[in-house]
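Quick one:
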Amino acid sequence: MEIKKSNTKKAVKNKKKKLNSQRVRWYTQLAFLVVVCIIGWQFYTFVSYCESGGKGFYMPRPPGVESFLPISALMGTKYFFGTGRISSIHPAGFVIFGTLLLTALFFRRGFCGWICPIGTISEWEWRLGDWFLKKLPQRVSHIMRNVPTRFTAGLSLIFVPIIALLILEMLTMESFKLPIFRHLIPAYALAIVLPFAVPRRFWSDKVNDIIARAWKYAILAFFIQVIIIKMPIAQLEMMYTRVPFIRVADVKMLKFFTNMSGMALSVILAMLVISLVNKNFWCRFFCPYGALLGVIAYASPFRIARDAKKCIDCGKCTKACPSHIVVEKKRHVLTHECVACYDCVNACPVNGALDMKLVRDRKKIHYGLYALMLIGFYVALTNVARITGHWYTKISDAEYILRISELDQPKYLHKAGQFETE
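Output:
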C-alpha cells in the first residue's frame, strides 16, 4: 500500500498550470461566440438596410447566418447527395452542416464542446448555477437538479410515442383534431407523474435521464424521415426555385427572434432558467443535430481512454463530466454523449490515467493539438467553400429588398409544412 501511495504522488499532475484544457476550450468558445454575435449584428444591419429600401448604412449579408437554418441545411444535404450539386440559395448552410458531420467523424462531438454557441451559453449557465447550488443544502440542490430531468422524462413518455407513430405514418397532423386525444388527457397526466411517483429503487434518475434523452433522437428520426427519406429531389428543386418562403428563410428566422410571440419567449426563458440547474439541458435532451453528431462519432478514431493500472478510483472524472458519463468505470468512453471537452482529463489527478487517444490507445492527443486540428479543419473547409464559389447565395440584394418589402404577404407564410408557390 505504501508503494502505491508513493507512485501516486510521483504521478500527480501539476495543478498550478495557468493554461489547461478547460481554459483553452473556454477561450475557443468565447471566440466563436463573439464571431456569431458579429454575424448576427451584420445580418440585422443588412435586413434593416433592405427594409429602408436600400438606403442608409449598408452591411453585406453574412453567409454564416445560414448556420441558424438547420432544416434548410438538411434539405441542402439531401439535394447534394441527390444531384451532386450544392444549392445556390443557402449554400453556406449546407457547407457548415456538412463540415459539422465531418468533424464528428474525425473528432467526435468536438463541435458541441468547443464551438457551438448554444452549447457555450448552456455550459456557462450551469457552471453559474453550480456555484449557487453548492451554497444550498445538499437535498435541496439534488431536487433542483433532478426535477427538470424527471419532468422531461414524463413529457418524453407522451411525445416520443406520438412522434414514432407520425414516422410510421400511423398518425398525421390531421389526427390531432380527433376527440380521442382529448380523452387521453388522464394518460398524459399519468406519464408526467410517473417519474416523480415511482420509488427510486425501481425507477432511478438514470432511467429518467435515458428516457428524457429519447426526445432528441425522436426529433432527429422525424426530420430524417420527412426530409432525407420521403422528400423527392424534384420537390426540393421546386422549393428552391418557386417557394418564396425558402428564399427568405433567413429573414423569417430573424423576425422570429425580433418579433417573438409570448409562447416562444416563455419557452426560451424556461430553457434558460432550467439550464442554470440542469447541466446542458437543451444539448442533452432536445438538440437533434447533437444527437446526429453523436451517432456519427462512433466511427471516430478519437476516444477518452482510462488506464486501469494508473487509476486511483477517485471519481473526479465522473463528477467533472457535463454529460453525466460514468467515466471512472469505463476503459474507453465510447458513447454518443461525449463532447470531447477534456474536462474529465483535466480533473484527473494522475498523469496518464486518463487521456484522449487514437484508436487502440496508440497515441495520446494533447488538448492543444486536438483544438488546433478541430478548429483548423472547420476553418479550412469553410474557406475552401468560399474560394470555390459555394459560400455566397445567388439571391441579389435587389431581390432581398423587394421580398422584404412584401414579407407580410401570404406567400411568405407556411402552415404545417405547406408553402405557397409563385
